[in-house]
From TrEMBL:
Name of the protein in its database record: D-alanine--D-alanine ligase
Textual note on the cofactor: Binds 2 magnesium or manganese ions per subunit.
Catalytic residues of the enzyme: E12, S138, S269
Domain ATP-grasp: 98-291
Catalyses which reaction(s): 2 D-alanine + ATP = D-alanyl-D-alanine + ADP + phosphate + H(+)
Sites where the protein binds Mg(2+) 1: D245, E258
Cell membrane keyword on record: no
Gene Ontology cellular component list: cytosol
EC number(s) per entry: 6.3.2.4
Gene3D superfamilies (alphabetical): 3.40.50.20, ATP-grasp fold, A domain, ATP-grasp fold, B domain
Length: 293
């Protein structure tokens, strides 16, 4: 019996419910015994009272992607999909993740960490800046700061979601994403948006965002991105599946943005899209994620 864990109480709740429904339907269509569980953050006792052998985690954001639910399952010796609690926590905390990646000499934008109660540190890299909560997904709470006078309002917005804020050098360029299944990379997707960046609106609300797969890179460039993505994935000890996001600057130099250890699984999500380009159906993708657990 498989429990599909969905919902949660993060800012990504709605997307998680959509992902969970898609996974649940894929399991049902293959006659796999399963049930949906909508986690609200305080109803886990209802989950533990049910009998199941595996949890398929499609909880995005805090609580589901940061190691919290993973630790609860580990403590009860219940198998689950995706990365373990430590790797999940490493991936969710953008500052911690960047420190790990830096130690592996992976390509990153310059950044500083701001704590809510502490003084603003010196920022020794040029404008524009990206101001983002350290532990939030779906581009929620992110601002582009082109003038220092905009920094206070950007920090105020980000602090609605987290006490730890990352100020990063803004890298202008094209956005790409690499999905990982097991220890293999899937075809690279290029993301084209008419917004300033690939924000929440362009991810979930806009009809103009385009996803190009195959992308417009040469085979050599695509291989380079896939190699960096796999190294970034393994550096935080992620396992099972995930997605690594990049910017390619005007010189076509790659810069890592972030990693998703529980990416979206809706009909228009990027991992299913990359899988489809590799000849893997949604149902097969779900089964392979289970096989990796």
């Amino acid at each position: 019996m498989i429990a599909v864990l969905m919902g949660g109480n993060s800012a990504e709740r709605k997307v998680s419910l959509d992902s969970g429904e898609a996974v649940y339907q894929a399991l049902k269509s293959q006659h796999i015994a399963c049930f949906k569980f909508d986690w609200h953050g305080d109803n886990l006792n209802n989950l533990w009272s049910q009998k199941f052998d595996l949890a398929f985690i499609v909880l995005h954001g805090r609580g589901g992607e940061d190691g919290v639910i993973q630790k609860q399952l580990e403590d009860r010796h219940i198998a689950y999909t995706g990365s373990n609690s430590t790797a999940s926590a490493n991936g969710m905390d953008k500052h911690l993740c960047k420190e790990i990646w830096q130690s592996e000499n992976l390509p990153l934008a310059a950044s500083v960490l701001v704590n809510k109660e502490s003084q603003l540190p010196d920022i020794n890299f040029p404008l524009p800046w990206a101001v983002k909560p350290a532990s939030e997904g779906s581009s929620i709470g992110i601002s582009k700061v082109t003038n220092r006078s905009q920094l206070d309002s950007a920090l105020t917005l980000a602090q609605r979601y987290d006490d730890k804020i990352l100020i990063e050098q803004w890298i202008a360029g094209e956005e790409y994403t690499v999905a990982i299944l097991g220890n293999k990379t899937l075809p690279v997707i290029k993301i084209v948006t008419d917004q300033d960046f690939y924000n929440y609106e362009s991810k979930y609300l806009s009809n103009t965002t385009q996803y190009l797969c195959p992308c417009d890179l040469s085979k050599e460039q695509e291989n380079q991105l896939q190699k960096i993505a796999l190294k970034a994935f393994q550096a935080i000890n992620a396992t099972g599946w995930g997605r690594v996001d990049f910017i390619l600057d005007k010189h076509n130099a790659p810069c890592l943005l972030e990693i998703n250890t529980v990416p979206g699984m809706t009909s228009h999500s990027l991992v299913p899209m990359a899988a489809k380009a590799a000849g893997i159906t949604f149902e097969q993708l779900v089964q392979q994620i289970i096989d990796e657990a």
